[in-house]
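Record type: monomer structure entry
Structure origin: computed from sequence
Chain ID: A
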Amino acid sequence: MNPQAKKYDFENLFTLEMANNHQGSVPHGKKIINEMGAIAREFGIKAAVKLQFRNLNTFIHPTFRENKDNKHIARFLSTELTESQFKELVDEVRKEGMITMVTPFDEESVGMIDRMNIEIVKIASCSAHDWPLLEKIASLGRPIICSVGGLTIKEVDRVVSFLEHRGATFALMHCVAIYPTPPEKLHLNQIEVMRDRYPHITVGFSTHEPPENTSVIGLAFAKGARIFEKHVGVPTDTIKLNAYSANPDEVRAWVKAYKQAVDSCGHGERVVEAAEIADLRSLMRGVYAKKDIKAGMPINRDDIFFAMPLLPNDHMRSGRFKNGFIADRDYKTNEPLGAGIEPERPTKKDIIYSTIHATKGMLNTARIPVGHDFMVEISHHYGLEKFHEIGCVIIDCINREYAKKLIVQLPGQYHPVHYHKVKDETFQILSGTMEVDIEGKKRMLYAGDTLWVPRGVWHGFKTDTGVIFEEISTTSLETLGDSFYLDKQISSIPREARKTKLLNWGRHQFDNVE
């Protein structure tokens, strides 16, 4: 296995496809490479210039070399380059600080790739089911990008299976092999289909729309594409580009559109900005005293009214008011109530509801449906106030002669070390990562990993990312005292004080709980 292929980072790679736009001229090919290198430096992008290799002596059947029915044959022959000429272009790509990439169309060309030490091999859509060629490409052990234009999703499954069985590191490219591609034929939703079906594989977009249509790259990025390919060239007085190849100015506009899309989509979870909060506060209602209120009095809804504006600094907004707040000082009629009236620590209801919301959010993000026939308990070994540090949420799905639970831990939570006398269990990670302490030894578990925990084995677990895992076991007997904790303080606390049972996710269960 070539070390270049291991864990290759395909993310945000721009593939600048020269194809035959060099016109059979090394100087013109270098001109294209130089222009693309300048653009890559200007925008700070990770760029590869892609060439196409064909051994035309064997690639074209000898009796068809003069054939005029297939337009490609004459084009390939008129732009033919020798291996040494291609080597000049490859060297120029490296001089420009870009990545070398080649699409081979026959086995002999794969040998050229090996001799030139090309970094990435590209499989064209027309070759995606050419199994002899794919076998030869996979044997190189280099990173592979495979376009799947014209393939059904079942046919893409075969390609994925083929490459995975050979240990290849590869990415997939959504592609529509219509040149140029009109907007209604782009089928950009296919990017999401592929990302959902192959979540462990980087998915890109090989584009053939007219180059003046720069909106498509932003849509592709928003759909989840992370590799972007476009045919490029340099027109001259005698060279005219085809309808889907971009000149340098069009490539610049294309990359600018990508940059704008990245900025517009944002990075990770949204951070709410101060300017946005200020604008929203200017539209909110504040809490005002309807009558004089004395310090120490409980404040009820009849004692206050809601109105705008919400004043700056220490003013309670309407959404924070709850019956029973204690006045922190005297308030005159129409005076704004201070935000300091709110309790400093979250209430039991606050903790329970925030836990329910976070747990549901994690299950939805991981696309794990739970139906309605289950029981939920919040396990808080040292009390609810410490739940976000120590504990987990347990969803009991089945508990007969065998049992199944879903265990959800929020980011940063720890579950104390314990063992079971009767229960034998196996964990399987569904989402996130988890560090398990098993008999004093640490082990990291990732999505798909399983861990058997026999009876009597000490084990605890924690997560930095948040984790959801299945627990498959013999009959669960925790309610009968089958969990024995290393910290005896936990066992000394009554079980009902360490568990909060939820009925139907606690719907209306805590309406009257403060």
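Annotation 1: The domain at 348-506 is CATH 2.60.120.10 (Jelly Rolls).
Annotation 2: The chain has three domains: 9-265, 277-339, 348-506.
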